[in-house]
Amino acid sequence: MQFKLVSDFSPTGDQPQAIAALTTGIAAKKRQTLLGVTGSGKSTTGDATVLVRKNGVILKQPIGAIIDGLLNKHAHEIQLSNGTEILEASALLPTMRYEAYSLDPEGKKSSWKPILQFVRHSSPPHLLKVNTRCGRSVTVTSDHNFFVLRNSELTLTTTAELRKGDLLPVPRTLPEPEQPLPPIRLQDWLGENTQAYMAVPKADELRQSNKELLEKAIGRAKSYHVVFKQERISLEQYAHAIEILPALCTGARIGSKRKTLQFAPSQELSPAFLRLLGYYVAEGHAEKQYFIISSRDTEIASDFSSAIDLLGLTSRLRPETYDYQTNSTIWSTILARMCGKRAQTKQLPPFWPQLSNEQLRHVLAAYFSSDGGVNGTTISCATASPTLAEDIMLALLRFGIVARLRERSIKLPHKEVRQTYWEIHVSGQPFLRQFEHSIGFTLARKREALQKILHKQENTNVDLIPLGSRLRTLRGTLGLTQYQVATDTHTSRSCISLVESDKRRPSKSLFESIINTLRAHAETQQLHAVCEEVDRLSALRHVFWTPVKSIREVTAERYVYDFAVADNETFLAGRGGLFVHNTFTIANAIAQSGKNTLVLSHNKTLAAQLYSEFKEFFPDNNVEYFVSYYDYYLPESYLPSTDQYIEKTAMVNEKIEQMRFSTTASLMSGEPTIVVASVSAIYGLGSPKDYAELSLDISTGMKTRRIDLLAKLASIQYERNDTAPGPGDFRSRGNVIDVHPPYRKQYYRIVLTDDAIDSITLTSTENNKPLGKRAELRIFPARHFVVPQERVKDAVKGIRAELRKRLPELGEMESYRLKTRINYDAEMIENTGFCKGVENYSRYFDGRKEGERPFCLLDFFSDDDLIVIDESHVTLPQLHGMYKGDYARKKNLIDYGFRLPSAFDNRPLKYDEFEEILLKRPGVFVSATPGEYEKNISAKVVEQLVRPTGITDPEVIVRPTNGVVDDLLNEVGATAKAGMRTLVTTLTKRQAEDLTEYLLKHGIKARYLHSEIDALERTDIIRRLRLGEFDCLVGINLLREGLDLPEVGLVAVLDADKEGFLRNATSLIQTVGRACRNASSRAILYAETRTKSIDAALSEMTRRRAYQKAYNTRHGITPATIIKKVAGGKEEPTTVRAAPRRKLIEIESAMMRAAESLDFERAIELREELARYRRATKDKKSGRK
């Protein structure tokens, strides 16, 4: 089977890889997901602190220091791209492995993830500093991405789109190191100190056993003085010596050059030593030859004095002060380098991330005991060092304590200058209790003060987790009242009401109580989907949420820095997506696979769009269109409440009906065929086996009598019409028979001579001119539901047998009603082979068993053919719901004696039946946001990251709704002057019509488009928009997925802040995506407030835009608007009738809506009103009163 793809361009960007992957998977009969994803940018200043794990050792360092060091060391491995320096982490392996502490946006938990790339690039002109209410801050580029919690949903947004009040996540805990920290080497902290020397008593012994090696290690002359005069060697000499002779470090001591005071070269991290570090950080400073720790508390002074004694030192109290001085050049240098020399440079020892929690608590307990205390209902401390403040904040996280930081400027006494201080506060009973349990104070009076505030009423305004409307939604799903939730959670109904309206955010304890209540009710009701949603909501408690306080512009620096992190960054990159060039990718995959293909779409408009595109790609192959052929459909139904039976009423669109017949004919012909279909593909269609076996094969020269040929045509449901034959008719005049197949626009003229077929000619229906001779011809039946005559008798027997079985089960009235109905239908079938509603007996005609699925379009394909499900995130849920609606309607008909139970088997496929077919065949799910279902049954997710055209997502502007109509009028006019079209989306049909009228009054050529306009007219409206017959199209949700309109220069979304299906993040991205075919396009969102959906959509589009721009720069691509011809009426579905008058449309549309919502009483009223209006209109035209 061969497909011939015709296109003016070749696959570019990442399309070749995607096409190759899809083709390979299709050949192996695997299911795959075609997903468009984008990258995410993270650029921060070099002084931003990051936690990394280097070869298993946790470090807290500025990102700039890490990346600068690596780039300098591995300069030969750097990749340059437009001024950006990139170092792949693979270049460091296996000797060096870096990991970053990363947040999982799904589970809301943090963990170590490998760093894949280290990136440095020039800073943009302006940077933004983000400050949070709890005191955390970071300076980043405007396109830096943040996770933001809005309306209880985690979304990704850039700094430029961040706003005050947005909630940012902070991890509740930091990880404890896996390995204990060994004793620290003092010489590492002395650096180039010329006052420190090493005594090496082992030299005497080594001189006797290995004189030559000793002399090589420290020199011949020096070895003599070390052994015989007990001289000491410098730290530099010692470091060189132990590399040659490691045994020299045995018994070594560190000290000054001549004094007898000496220390071991390594220091154990004992509790006393760690507390000494804490006291020094709090109240100490270092001079050249001594260090001082100040304290008025004798308990503290006694504690750190004991620690100093253990070092072999002695401290003394200076007269008339609280300063304890310890003379030691060595330890003064070590403490200054380790913890800072003055108040403004203080820090926790740099190795604090490597300390165990037990070790770290000693440092913090000493610090808070000396410099902190209980202040009101909080534990607080203050420091003049921003580095120390950051260290304390992070160190507290090791114990699950989230502290708040406050910057204060204080005027120094007796001076005209002000000093900046950073205050650290721990508040809220859960955090205070955690402090008492994990850290505590070394000072008794402070322990007592802490106990007092722990017994006070809990402060619930510290650790808050927003729930908002999600609580209301879940509560409604579970059928719970606010009072029930309040009772179960031991709170008030008003509290629950405030939580649902997001006027109050619950504390962590109340949040957990609400979650437990919802989960318990969901489990009791066995609502597994609700349980899963509750679990996802419960994950919010794994992080602490802090609001954004301010965002301000700051001066740019030379460089900004990035990490590329595995897994979580990959997830961030899978979000959103592109559909813009998936048709071309799928077309190439179809062409290379050579398989018949069914493309399923979730609406008629998108199906028509895809049909037109595939027709362009495959002009020499069969490309068919299969959707519902009803312009109007009121199904048969019964309303028990009013005892009202509604007969089936339908208006068939002959154009679409012809295309449905063309679909099955092409599939049965054996030629390469692509079918674009809606969910109509899963509705009953008749047996493909009968359809093929009952087809009529003829050829020139074949012997047949005229009467026999006419009889065969009648047996396959063709009707004789010698006056004005149409589709499904034949005409016979003498020996000339004209056959009008329902699947062709032309007809076949068959000429017989002497009981033999002389010629077969394809003839135009417009002018009866011959279009070509055929040597042979296969004529398919005029209807999809056809059965051999011998099976009709068996079907009638089955129907009557079911009737006899059913009658005793019904009441007297229902029994009489059913008996009368079925006997009449059976007689009609026996005599004519047809009756009204014959499809309700399809089980007997098809020879199916009770409950067995009906035949449908999918059965006209083989198990080797390909299924493509477009916009699978929408199409699959639609397939799920088809059967249930049909069953509910028919149940009343069967229960009340209007239909036999076998009518249940004339139905769409159940989803598990569709899935059974799907799993047998190769398939591709095409979606920007595939669900877990698609991913789970796909062997592979094939990603596309870029648009080959270079076109970026349009710039999106958010404007207030004040004066929206006048503003829109100006924008539409300006766009029209530029030769481009405008799409406007509204929320209601009335709004669309009123806006269209307003635009028309002000000179804008506009049309509206909504679901009540039939499929063919919708397609024609879109075609006319592209042709420029009008400039603005106003629609509702029909402007979302799949409309490929390169002429569109502006997309305007009204009421963008009205959260819901039509204004969620996915819908907004898809709607704005309609402008992604034009390089000059823009989008405007009119909204009073920035909703979570708007922010999520803007974030995704900004990220995509940045990724595409980077790709364009790397490959020298200049974005160019797609040039795509407008298909003519011959190649795509077009309307064949004039539009009815407005009043008729409104009444008929309302009737259709009522029928679709199963409000049949209202539908009947509207049908009668429609009939009265038509009669009145007719009378008016004829002049009658």
Keywords:
1185 residues, alpha+beta, Endonuclease - Pi-scei, Chain A, domain 1, eight-stranded antiparallel sheet
Globular, elongated, flat, extended or rod-shaped: what is the shape? Answer: elongated
Q: What is the percentage of strand-forming residues?
A: 15-25%
- Largest beta-sheet characterization: 8 strands, antiparallel
Residue runs with pLDDT of under 50 for 5 or more positions: 35-42, 568-582, 1128-1140
* CATH architectural group of the domain at 268-455: Roll
Q: Can you give the helix content as a percent range? A: 25-40%
Q: What is the top-level CATH class of the domain at 268-455?
A: Alpha Beta
Quote the distance from N terminus to C terminus.
Answer: 66 Å
Could you say what the CATH topology of the domain at 268-455 is called?
Endonuclease I-creI
CATH superfamily of the domain at 268-455: Homing endonucleases
Rounded to the nearest angstrom, the radius of gyration is 40 Å
- Give me the secondary-structure category: alpha+beta
Question: What is the number of helical segments per DSSP (H or I, 4+ residues)?
Answer: 38
By DSSP, the count of extended strands is 53
Mean pLDDT: 80
